Structure formats: structure tokens, C-alpha cells
Amino acid sequence: LRNETEIIERIWQALPTRPRKKSGDWLQLGVGDDAAVIRAANRDGAADGDWVLSTDAFLERVHFLTEVHSPADIGYKALARATSDLAAMGAVPKFFLLSMALPPDRTGAWLDGFLKGMSQAAREFGMMLIGGDTSRFRSAAINVTVGGQAVSDKGGRVHILTRSGARPGDLIYVSGTLGAAQLGLEVILHGLDGKARGPKIPRGGTWKRLLQPHLRPRIQIALGRWLAGENAPRRPIATAAIDSSDGLSTDLNHICQASGVGARIWASKIPAVRVPQGLRRRGFGLDPLQLALHGGEDYQLLFTVPPATSRGLPKQIRGVRLTQIGEIVRFSARSKKNAFCVELVGDEGGARPLQARGWDSFANQA
Ligand SMILES: [Mg+2]
Known about the structure:
By secondary structure, the protein is α+β, with helices and mostly antiparallel strands. The chain contains ten helices and 16 strands. Strands 9, 10, 11, 12, 13, 14, 15 and 16 form an eight-stranded mixed β-sheet that branches.
């Protein structure tokens, strides 16, 4: 039995992933990051900007439940999740292709609702549909492929953010709040008392704010563009970036693996979701730090900046809070196989290895 990482590696081994040398300059970045980067050429063959591409599957019973999630929320989130990978590269979203399989009884009102939500996301992100495919299937399976354009700085130089640029000494930042989407999901799955027999959305406006991060995540397009150095004098603000889709422990691990570095983060600095007193008292097992470390689907940006840049970094960008949570450290390749590259410093000051326990599609999930 393989886990998600092993399955992805198996796919990369079995299929061609690099262009032949002579004609290889069109591929700027292939497999292994949040998105791929294709270099465009003008009529004379000169480089003319970079296009960023990513794809994402959104499946009934794996990622959403049609008896709980409204069609509009499903449509909105299907495009938001895919587009978040463009935000992580600092790209400007432009277009998407929608491939969907549906049971016949969901082609009427359900589909209309789905398209309404997706259309809202498309307008918000500035994207248009350019193609797709439809098919009949026993459950709803949605695949969205998104494309965007890399930003350029004042001098016209094109920049993208990757997972691989973090260097020892860089400081680690995260946008917004972590664990909020997971908290919303826990409330839906287990009810307000933690004992629900089936998933259910609590009624009443009080719970809306709690569920919003799960139902309609806000993705960080503007922040990504700024971090990539759009209209900046010379270079990107961030050295590396990823969107927090699988959970901090897993996503920070991706940056470390891709950059060949380690990371140390402080529990007390992590902007963890506030769990309402009412839920805590019910002995729900909802620990803010655990939700923040391992909860998925926040779609915030996790990024690194050099110390000199960090000193001038604003506390927030367009209302989105930026929090420094740790630093990038050296990591010896010798022990890479078994050792954990992320360390968590607890409130008592001791550091312990942090296992990547975020979302894995092929692991046993609760
Ligand atoms: Mg991602």
C-alpha cells in the first residue's frame, strides 16, 4: 500500500516529465511544485512571459457531501481550490477548463446551483471558462484545470514563486488564520455536541462565521502577486511559497523537501483558529494548535523571506494578516530518509520533531 507521496513519485518515474534538450526551453518548471510554468514566445521566438498551469480533482464523498454542502458552495470551492495553486505561484488567474462527471439527477437544479457558485468565484478571481468535458457517472466528480500569467516587476522581469527557494536564515510567515477550515468541517461532521450521527450544517447565523472558512475559503491571489514582486523594483518579496491546502505540518514539509532545508517553528507564534468556549466545554477534542498544525483546506499562503526583507514587511496586506512563525535552518541530507525536517518549539521551550500529519488522499482519514 502506497501513500500519496509514493503514488506521485511512481507516476513521475513511469511517465516522461522532461522535454528533450533541444526543444526544452518552453518548460520553465515541470512536476513537483504547486503549478507548472510554461514560457511563451512571440512571433520572433523571443520569450514573452510565463504561463502557470495547475489541475485539481474535487470528488463527492472524498472532498464534499451533496447531502450537506450546497451546490453553490461546491461550485465556488471547486474553482477556489484549483486557483489557490496559482496564488501560491504569485500568478494572475486568467482561465479554467471544467471537466465534470454527474449522475443524471444532478443535471437540473443541482447543476444550476453549482454553476452559480462557480460563476461567482470566476468573477471574483477574474477568470473565464475556455473548455472542458462532461460525462455521466454514479457520483459527482469535478476536475478543474486553471491557468494564469506570471507577474513582472517594474523592469519587466517575470517572476514566479516556487517551493524550492527557501534558504537557511530566511524567516517563515503565514497569512491569515490556520485551522479555521478544519474547525468548520469538524462541526459539520460531528455536530455542535461532538456526537452527531451524520454530517449536518448547524442552522443559525451564529455558526455561519465558523463554517465560512470551510464552505467558502478566501484564496490569497493579491497577496501572492505582491509576494512574487509585481511592480516591485527588482525581485520577489518571498524566496519560497506554497498554499496551505494540506495543513501546515505537511505543507511546510513540502517547502523543506523542495528547498533542501529544515524549519523551526514556534507553537506560541502560530495564528491558530479561536475555538469558541461552547465547543471547548463539550470536550470535543478541538485543540486550536492541533487544528492549526494539521488541519487542511485553509488556502492561506505559507512563505519565506530573507531577514533583510522581513524587517520591512507590513503586518498586513489588504486586510490579510501576516504572521512570522519561525525560521529556515540547515538540514543535513544524510539523515533525510528518517528524520523530520520540521521542528516545533513548544510553549515550555523544548523543540520536538513535527510529523507531517496533514491531508493525504490515500491515508486512512477519520
Ligand atoms: Mg498547493
